[in-house]
Task: structure prediction
Amino acid sequence: MRHSPHLSARRHVLQKAPTGIHGIDEITNGGLPRGRPTLVCGSAGCGKTLLAMEFLIHGALEYAEPGVFIAFEETADELTRNVASLGYDLELMGEQNQLVVETIHVDRSEIEETGEYDLEGLFIRIGFAIDSIGAQRIVLDTIEALFSSFANEAILRAELRRLFRWLKERGVTAIVTAERGNQALTRHGLEEYVADCVILLDHRVDDEISTRRLRMVKYRGSTHGTNEYPFFIGEHGITVLPLTSASLEYEVGDERISTGVAQLDEMLGGPGIIRGSSMLISGTAGSGKTSLIATFVDAACRRGERCLFMSFEESVSQICRNMRSIGIDLVPWIDQGLLRFSTQRPTAYGLELHLMSIIEQVHTFQPRVVVLDPITNFSAVGTTSDVKAMLVRLFDLLKSQDVTLCCTSLTEAGGDAEHTDVGVSSLMDTWILLRNIETHGERNRGLYILKSRGIAHSNQVREMIMTSEGIKLVDVYLGTGMILTGSARLLAEAQAAAELAQAEARSERRARDVERRRRVIAAQIAALEAELAADEALWQEEARQEAIERRISQTLRHSLRQERHSGMHGEIPSSQVRLDSDD
Amino acid sequence: MNQEQESETPSEKVAAFERAVQQHAIQSYHLRLYIAGASQLSTRAITTLTAICEKYLHGRYRLEVVDVYQNPEQAHADNVIATPTLVMLEPLPQQVFVGDVAHSRRLAAILGIPLPE
Result:
């Protein structure tokens, strides 16, 4: 039967034993080489023992691989106490056959060498410990102690070589710790024997700030990250941050969230900023950065989203008190568990520790919004490039989790306003600049949107006013080619209002005049019409009289004509006679 | 201090030395030899040690030979990691010797063995 070369190659791919330590498994693409020894070296106090112990604890608890800890330096009691602070109970694990601590203490002053020897006793003790719980993992911490116990290095080296070969044969995954040497990786050249995987731990102090770093020096038969990765030892043990490898391959949405200031949302095209984007608010001291950011936080809490507020300058109570003055009460959100404050001085510890403490809180609290106020203070604990590198990693991580980040940056007065001390402005999606505009003997706050990626945003300057009902943005007064703010704006606005009122009064007066004239004319028309009607009535009466007279005279003429034709004088009616005589 | 030392006459020093030699001669020994199986080192250690004891400590020693393979608990109790290891339980103070007991001036001195010059 033929195997495809691909398949057979796959079968031989190095098996790995996951360490369960946050970050190390990512760097090593799955863990330490299974069934082989790994050398962990570093100077005193850099976390070798802890790393090794965590490897065993996680192995036993998470991967069902019992482990043996061979301690050459510390006693079982000391180790138990040390890891108890991380929340692990070694005694209990020992009772459950998950982890055995075997102390091998050798003191040179007690030992006299009388000839040739081997370390069969050590092999047997290790073998016994491994067999007692069926261990698949083992730690030798630190085997170099043997070099101070035995004088014959030739024998010791031969025996160590045999030991590692023996461990490989038994198929246990081993961690061997060693002290860092002056020139070489280890003081006694252990890397010669344990050549499969070497991890170097380092603890450096730069500018009075200590940072722990981890580097994979070699890893035979496997790809691995080669950078120096910062790590820190926190409440949950070692956390390595392979964040320099954080990629730019994250999904982005287009959901928009309000900034809490309606007018600012309008400037940002209506609905506000994009969720999962980053917003920078920069400005000089007292320009209202924290107030604006608190408004944003308040809006997020109103939406029911969790917020993590990292304050590097003010205490919780101070911020809450100050924000009450502009009508924002953050205390209920804290009580409801929607808002968590974390107040630390930047100088309290190094950048990496800050980063990891933020990340740890992001992991545990799962906020939708993270606030850093202000990021500029980090420049006290690192160089610009260090701070930038740290923030890049933080931003990438938050973006990849769709967390909206909002940070403030203090601009030195007199400096270039469009400049951030830590050089992160290019990383930010939205940059809001707050500026003190000093005119007419007063300072007012101007708000600009310098940029906002992916959002059609206003290019206008707005004046930011803090009222007891929160932050308001008002249009600056744009008249006669001037931008006016503050009382100058108010004055200009008042003048404009007065002019408007006068104009209104004028037009009202004219309307009243016209109305009056209309009424006068209407009255005149009525009088003339009445006159006309009187004339008409007179004229009709006269016409009627004339008609009567005409009829009488006709009647009279008719009767006279008849009289003359008959020749007889008839009796003339008395009325007619009288009428005629009256004429 | 100085006065005390000076008060001790040479003859007194000699007497003290004689007493110590006397004591040494009657001192009994309790030795425990850890070996690992039937390795060359183990057998050589047993042979050499037994020979030294028989020759110089005849009748006043007790030698236990412990195989670490068969009795790992005992090896654990004595914190043995190298083999062969000789633990001298008596006389006190307890001392530990590592090696195949080939040539040890110190061991010989402690055991009160004349040095093979």
